[in-house]
Specification:
The complex is a heterodimer of chains A (340) and B (174).
Chain A (H helix, E strand, L loop, with lengths): L13 E10 L12 H15 L6 E4 L5 H9 L5 H5 L5 E5 L4 E5 L5 E8 L3 H18 L4 E2 L3 E2 L11 E8 L1 H5 L3 H10 L2 E5 L11 E6 L7 H27 L5 H15 L5 H16 L8 H10 L2 H7 L6 H21 L1
Antiparallel strand pairs in A: 1-5, 1-8, 2-3, 3-4, 4-5, 6-7, 8-10, 9-10
Chain B lengths: L12 E7 L2 E7 L1 H6 L5 H7 L3 H10 L23 H7 L7 H4 L1 H12 L10 H25 L3 H18 L4
Antiparallel strand pairs in B: 1-2
Helix pairs in contact in B: 3-4, 7-8
The chains are: A alpha+beta (340), B mainly alpha (174).
Chain lengths: 340, 174
């Protein structure tokens, strides 16, 4: 099952947790210095490691339809850079293990695991199992002092980027994002909005991740990030309660209007969906809307992304048709959710 | 001593430069020294308006500033062929081997990015075995030291043999 079809810990605030490990093979150059035959050799070597092991599937991304690649990015399985790469690339994946191994992204191998809710340790365990498998057959670039050697020096050491996607409408409304950003910076962590810096229409979704990869162990990084996210979760919950206590009734009205739009609109574009998502998810978390769960809304958001819509609906050939298909999908998923 | 650049004439000038703490020196003949502007400090400063731009980009990417090539003895990575200047301009390593080839040039920059420059996390299995062995060796060395101090020579002899055995296996790790 995909991460957005599962419910994880603290899912009212934490949407998903992701761990990415960067690994490289000893004897091959990086990036533009790697020629096509070298790239194909790397792909073949890693592919052979996973051949006949468990439920991994291999896909040659070099020849894949761009819409499929972009949809996989929108489902958070791969990075944008990987979806847009013009050089040979391949993906080894296991939806069962929530594992996506990108071959020839910035590094030769990038193992990525994404799970619902606050579950960094589980995501690391999953990524680490693939890492162990690769390490048992291939010579991975590593030195005692610098750890895993990566294309960009900012990933040296553990080669690990752990990130937590948080839904923070309370902190956003209270104007606390900037101050949170400053505090996290002092702790070697970063926060960025899902649809770019300074964007107001980001669905109140933020990604918090470790910046430093060298000098701290994986366990230290994961523990610190988990603890910080737990504190942010507490703060977010208390701010939401204050919003709910609004006596004018405007807050509840805004949420119910957004819910009404989701239930009855026949055309919804991506940016409207993101805005509706934030309101209705907040309403669901606070018990204002009791027929929908946060997980259902996460699923709606992912399935409402332009390339996913195009892929799941044959008729979605232009923006207008996509808006129609998106609104239909939203109504359909919500109807299914209220029947449960 | 022959000039390090033309390798023909006798070197008469020791040319030293220090760019942001990175020092290098070359023994040159008078002609080669004049050619690279060694006698004219102002010439170097204004000759390349993009030199500072490059160092700016290099710093942004977290690497040491771009150093204008003097054409003398440019070191290249023996796996990917990249020079340090190329890495600084790109802000990225050319291959895993660049990290050992340009260890000195990169160490301060890496510490600047990460705050600490020693890895303490997970390692490939064969390095984990190496770490384990290192721990064992340190423990036996301590025991040996204590045994000698306590004048337990028979025990010390056994420990010395054990230490020799542990160290002989260690050579296999690269």
């Amino acid at each position: 099952m995909m991460w957005y079809e599962l419910t994880g810990k603290d899912s009212d605030v934490v949407v998903s947790s992701r761990v990415r490990l960067a690994r490289n093979l000893c004897d091959y150059p990086f990036g533009k210095r790697l020629d096509e035959s070298g790239a194909k050799e790397i792909i073949e070597k890693v592919r052979s490691v996973f051949e006949g092991v468990g439920d991994y599937t291999f896909t040659d991304y070099s020849t894949l339809d761009p819409t499929v690649k972009s949809a996989e990015y929108e489902r958070h399985k791969i990075s944008r850079e990987f979806a847009e790469a013009k050089t040979p690339t391949a993906l080894i994946e296991s939806d069962e293990k929530n594992l996506y191994i990108m071959l020839l992204e910035e590094d030769h191998i990038r193992i990525q695991s994404i799970m619902a809710g606050l579950s960094l340790n589980e995501a690391y365990a999953s990524a680490s199992s693939a890492d162990t498998l690769i390490d048992s057959s291939l010579r991975i670039a590593y030195n005692e002092k610098l750890g895993y050697l990566t294309h960009c020096p900012t990933n040296l050491g553990t080669g690990m980027r752990a990130s937590v996607m948080m839904f923070l409408p309370g902190i956003t409304a209270a104007g606390g994002i900037r101050s949170l950003q400053n505090q996290l910076g002092k702790l070697g962590l970063t926060i960025r909005g899902m649809s770019g810096e300074g964007s107001a229409s980001n669905g109140c979704l933020y990604q918090i991740s470790n910046q430093v990869t060298l000098g701290n162990s994986e366990c230290e990084i994961l523990t610190k990030l988990t603890e910080i996210c737990e504190k942010i979760t507490e703060q977010e919950r208390s701010l939401r309660e204050k919003m709910k206590a609004d006596e004018s009734g405007r807050f509840t009205d805004r949420i119910m209007r957004s819910y009404g739009t989701m239930l009855y609109a026949t055309l919804i574009d991506t940016s409207e969906l993101v805005k509706l998502y934030a309101d209705v998810r907040l309403g669901a978390c606070l018990g204002i809307i009791d027929r929908v769960t946060p997980k259902t809304l996460d699923e709606i958001l992912v399935r409402g992304m332009p390339n996913v819509i195009t892929l799941e609906n044959r008729g979605a050939v232009n923006a207008n048709r996509r808006d129609r298909c998106r609104a239909e999908m939203v109504r359909y998923v919500l109807a299914g959710a209220s029947e449960k | 001593m022959l000039c390090e650049k033309c390798k023909k004439k006798e070197a008469t000038v020791m040319y030293k430069e220090s760019i942001n703490g990175h020092k290098s020196s070359y023994a040159l003949c008078a002609d080669c020294a004049a050619e690279i502007g060694a006698f004219d400090s102002t010439k170097k400063l204004i000759s390349d308006p993009f030199e500072n731009m490059n160092s700016l980009f290099g710093s942004l990417f977290g690497l040491a500033p771009y150093k204008k090539s003097t054409g003398v003895d440019v070191k290249r990575c023996n796996l990917c062929g990249a020079s340090f200047n190329e890495l600084a301009a790109e802000g990225m390593a050319g291959c895993p081997n660049c990290y050992s080839e340009f260890e000195d040039e990169l160490s301060a920059t890496i510490a600047r990015i990460h705050g600490s420059s020693v890895h303490t996390g997970a390692a490939p299995a064969k390095y984990m075995e190496g770490r384990e062995k290192k721990k064992q060796i340190e423990a036996v060395e301590k025991e040996l030291h204590d045994a000698v101090a306590a004048e337990e020579y028979e025990k010390a002899a056994t420990l010395r043999d054990k230490l020799r055995e542990l160290k002989s296996d260690e050579g296999g790790m690269k």
